[in-house]
Amino acid sequence: MRIKFFYQLLISQISILILAFMILSLSFSQFVENYIFQNKVEELEDYGEQILTDLTVRFEGTEEFLSEYSQILDTRHIQYLLFNYEGKIVYPKLKSAPLIQLTEKEWTAISAGKKVSVKHDIKRFGQEVSLVALPLMQGDKLAGGILLLAPITGTMQMISQLNRFLFYTIAISLTAALFISFIFSKSIVKRIKDIRNATSMISAGNYDVHVPDINQDEIGQLATDFNNMAAKLKRSSEEIERLENRRRKFIADVSHEMRTPLTTISGLAEGIKNQLIPEEGIDKAMGLIDREAKRLIRLVNENLDYEKIRSNQLKLNKEEVNLHEAFEVVKEQLMLQAKQKNNEITISCDEGLKVFADYDRLTQILINIVKNSNQFTENGHIALTGRKEDHEIVIDIEDTGIGIDPEEIESIWDRFYKADLSRTGTAFGEFGIGLSIVKQLVQLHKGKIEVSSQKGEGTEFTIRFPEKEE
Question: In the chain, what are the domain boundaries?
C-alpha cells in the first residue's frame, strides 16, 4: 500500500511529538511525586529526631510533654507512636499494647540502629501514608523508638490534579504542534512537488524551467542545484541543436564541395573513354582531372586534420623554428598562385628570429592564411611580418584585398563559411575549412589568433605564440 510522503512526514512528526510528550509528562510527574514524598519523609524524620532528643533530655518524658507534641503534629496531620524494645506501643496509651506494624525487614533495620522510611504505603494503617521509624538506642541495644505517620491522600489529590493540568497542557500543545506540523509538512511537500513537476517538464524536453530556491535549507539547495542542472541541460540542448544544424550544413557543404570536382572528373573521364575529347585536348583534360583529384584529397585531408584536432589525437612536435626560413618556404610554395592574381608576397622578419612550434603545423597555418589572403586579393600585396614582443613571437599577415564585413569576422573560423555565398556567384569563392584548422592549431600551440579587417581595404591576421620557457 502506497502512503503519500505528506502523510509519512506528518505521522513521523506527530509520533515523535507524542513520544516526547509522554516521556516528558511521565518524567515530570514522577519527579514531582518523588519530590513531594521526599520532603514529607524529611519532615517526619526531623520531627522524629526532635522528639527522641527531647525524650532523652527529659528522662523518659511526661504525658504533658508528649501531648504538646501531639497537638503540634495534629495541625500538620501527623501521628506518632512510641514503642519499646519489644515493639509494643507505649504512647499513646491504649487498652492493650499492640505491636508496632513494621515488617520483619524494617524491624531488623530498626534493631540495628537504622532508620526506616517509606514514601508511599497503601497496605497498612487503613490509608495511604508516608512513614518514618527512628530507633532509640542505649549503647548498641535497642531501647525503643518512634513511628511517625503522615496521610498522603491530599498529596495524591494534588498530584492527580497536577497530572490533569499536565494532560490538558499536553493536549493543547499537541494540537498546536499538529497544526504547525500540518502547515510545515504541506510546505515541504509543495516544494518537492515543484521539483517533481519541473523534472517532468525536463523529461518532456522543456528545459526552460525554474524552481523557487529562496529557502536556505537542503531542499532549497536541491532546488538551486536543480536550476543549475536545468540551465546546463538547456545550454547543452542548444549546443546539440546548434551542432546538429552545423552537421547538416557541413554535410551539405561537403557534398557541394565534392560534387564539383567529382562531376568534372567523371565528365572528363567519360569524354576520354568515349573518345568525345579530341586528341589535342586529352592532355588538358588529364590536367583538369589531376587538379580536381588533388582538390578532393586536400578536402579530405583537411577534414581528417580537423577531426584529429577536435578529438585531441593530434600531437605536436615542438622545436625552435627559424621564422624567416618558414616565411621563405611559404612564399616559394605560393609564389605561382600569387603571380596568377598579380599579387606580391613580401617578408619582413629578423633572420635570427625563432619561434617555438611544430614546424609542419606552423607551415600549414601560414600557408592556409596566405592562400586565403591571395584568394581575396587581386593586383595587391601580401605582407608577412615577424617580431618579438613581451615574451611572445608575433606574426602578422596583411593583405590589400576586398576585406571582410565586421559582422562576419567571427564566422570565418567556421568550417565552409561562405560556401553558400560561393553558390550565389561571388567572384572569390569561400573560406573553406582551412581557417577553422588554423585556429585550432594556434590554440594547440597555446597561442592566440586575431583578425581585423575593413571592407574594401584589406585584412590583417595577427598570431601570437608564447616564447619558449627555459
Answer: 5-157, 218-306, 315-466
The CB density around residue 75, as the number of other CB atoms within 10 Å, is: 7
CATH dotted code for 5-157 = 3.30.450.20
Does residue 210 contact residue 231 with C-beta atoms inside 8 Å? Answer: no
Residues 206-228 have pLDDT tens digits of 878 888 877 667 777 888 888 88
Q: Which residues of 56-73 are buried (b: 16+ CB within 10 A; e: fewer)?
A: eeeeebeeeebeebeeeb
How many CB atoms sit inside 10 A of residue 178's CB? Answer: 15
Beta bridge partners of 150: 130
Domain 315-466 has CATH 2.40.340.10: no
Residue 170 grid cell: 499536553
pLDDT of res. 419: 35
Distance in angstroms (rounded) separating the CA atoms of residues 187 and 153: 50
Fold of 218-306: Helix Hairpins (1.10.287)
Which helix or strand (DSSP H or E) is residue 306 part of? helix 282-310
What pLDDT, on a 0 to 100 scale, did the predictor assign at position 424?
34
Task: Bin 278: left if φ > 0, else alpha if -120 < ψ < 50, else beta.
Answer: beta
CA distance 449 to 470: 24
Look at residues 384, 346, 378 and name the one whose alpha carbon lies nearest to residue 362. 384
The rounded distance, in Å, linking the Cα atoms of 303 and 2 is: 57
The pLDDT tens digits for 456-466 are 889 999 999 99
Rg (the chain; Cα; Å): 54
Q: What residue ranges of the chain have pLDDT lower than 50?
A: 59, 61, 419-431, 470
User: In angstroms, rounded to a whole number, what is the distance separating the alpha carbons of residues 121 and 130?
Assistant: 6
For the stretch 81-110, what's the b/e string if a residue is b when 16 or more beta carbons lie within 10 angstroms of its beta carbon? bbbbbebebebeeeeeeeebbbeeebbebb
For the chain, how far is it from start to end, CA to CA, in angstroms? Answer: 72
Longest CA–CA separation in the chain, Å? 164
**CB 365 within 8 Å of CB 438:** yes
Nearest residue to 258 (alpha-carbon basis) of 304, 291, 296, 290: 296
Angle among Cα 106, 112, 115 to the nearest 5 degrees reads 55
Q: Which three cell numbers stand for residue 292?
A: 580536381
Which residues does 248 contact at the CB level (< 8 Å), separation at least 6?
none
